[in-house]
Amino acid sequence: MMPQIRRLPESLINRIAAGEVVERPASALKEVIENAIDAGARRIEVKLAQGGLDGFEVSDDGCGMSADEMALALERHATSKLPDDAIEQVVTLGFRGEALPSIASVARLTLESRAKGSALGWTLAVDHGEAVGHGPAALPPGTRVRVEGLFDKVPARRKFLRSARSEYAACLDVVRRLAMARPEIAFSLEHDGRRVLNLQAGEAMTDRVAGIVARELKDNAVGIDLERPGPSGTMRLTGIAGLPTYNRGVADHQYLFVNGRPVKDRLLTGAVRGAYSDMLARDRHAVLALFLTLPPDEIDVNVHPAKTEVRFRDAAGVRGFIVSGLRQALATGDRRSAQSPDAAAMGRWQQEPVSPSEPNPVLRSIFSGRNWPAQPARVSEAGQAWRAFEGEVMAAPQGRGDEAQEASADDADFPLGVARGQVANTYIVAETKDGLILVDQHAAHERIVLERLRAAGAGEAVARSQALLVPDVAEMDEVDCDRLESAADGFAQFGLVIERFGSGAMLVRALPAALAKADPAKLLQDIADDIARHGDALLLSERIEHVLATMACHGSVRAGRALSLAEMNALLREMECTPRSGQCNHGRPTWIKLSMADVEKLFGRH
Fold this sequence. Notes:
Elements: H1 10-21, H2 25-38, E1 43-49, E2 55-60, H3 67-73, H4 99-105, E3 108-114, E4 121-127, E5 130-137, E6 142-148, H5 155-158, H6 164-181, E7 186-191, E8 194-199, H7 205-213, E9 221-230, E10 233-242, E11 247-248, E12 254-258, E13 261-263, H8 266-275, E14 285-286, E15 288-293, E16 299-300, E17 311-312, H9 315-332, H10 343-349, H11 361-367, H12 390-393, H13 401-406, E18 418-423, E19 427-432, E20 435-440, H14 441-456, E21 465-475, H15 478-486, H16 488-492, E22 497-500, E23 505-512, H17 520-534, H18 540-554, H19 565-576, E24 591-595, H20 596-602
Parallel strand pairs: 1-7, 12-15
Antiparallel strand pairs: 1-2, 2-6, 3-4, 3-6, 4-5, 7-8, 9-10, 10-15, 11-14, 12-13, 16-17, 18-19, 19-20, 20-24, 21-23, 22-23
Helix pairs in contact: 1-4, 2-6, 6-7, 8-9, 14-18, 14-19, 15-17
């Protein structure tokens, strides 16, 4: 017999709703801070106890609420953020009307508020869904929310909370992301009585982001401000993007915002990865903060209870806009790189000299015929299919080498200076009017070759395509063939012409000119694997970019190859006119500068 259908009690309904919104202290904190922002606060103060496990308090100077509004705010599906039924036009951070009652159903919630213009404040207290008190309260205009004992009466949820340190890290991340999105608001954060953040109102966006992420980010990043008109309004991308040489081993320092809302969206993170694809190793991640603004009807923010995910009406257009915006901004950096000498390396030059009978170990290592190895790569090279034509990719360095050989270091036309020699057949030593520059010849030429290949393929699709004399048959799994067949029209735009050849094979009729010597079967397998891994989000153009980067790596001047002064200077001149020449295709710097002041310090002149 089927169980009888019954209505759930209100307390259980609230606890179920809380399960959607309140996963841990950080998620409850996020909802409360967003309410403060939507209330027009100019200052928000956050206090945490034991990472939020024992409780947290959020105070703001926003518009405040009357006693009647406070009672209504603790009812489900009550909100001031949706004045009409146009839910797709919402511009506030939240509107579901479930945050406060959901939190109150699984914790002790004390709500105090005083509306602007009112002489008296009011307080309401709820303990795990039960009202336990109300009355007048003394506080300045604004609202104060205190949450304590989260999940104390729901042990099944409490036992899944992590340590105080882990919960604190999650709460700190929430405050940081919301503070980045609102530089016009002052934020402060205390944890167990210790002041962690104290951000002033009215900061520039770049200053706010750098102050939260890392102070050195501002000097190792480029600004972004790009607009694109659309059918229903303008789409705009602003923010700050770290240079590829300023990277991290984890993606925790990528902050993405849509219409002022912090999000963790796969499409956006994929766009960032695509923009940096030929400038970063696969195990390194960019540092950036991007703010995407677009018309409300172009985005659905109500696809996740906590609104950390969004859905775009034109996902491909948004992705392309972000990729092109990032690449355009990074190209303006030209030769820039995170070029400060490593402190530990500098320290080795500054050791105190010892007595002649006991030679300095640094000098001993220099003059003992040490075998200097080439710098090891931090990434595994991708594939073997394009290594057969290194000689064709490698072109003789071009530039004003002969003139540069006789040039003075004071010549303003040479920002990277004039070559004076080569160290370990790997590093070029150049002199400028204000210091010395060391250039990794392989990393520098790797970037130059990649940009040549990219420029060579900038013509029409027909010019970029080379028909095979005999079509190549690539035998593959049937599912992979299905994936490739569905994207064949898009591939043709980039010069790759394929068609289905039975249930388990693809026929390759033409290849992009830049990949004329590639192994068609391996190329198709790699593309099929990328489609399986990333879906249609990874465009063939990005796949070709990765292939070109691999070709450039193996077609460049190798470490260990002796160069003449003319060749060195030609390489420097090409670096000066090549976009993104400050880093190789894996995110490593191509050159490091040692200022003359640093050189003089080494010899005790200052």
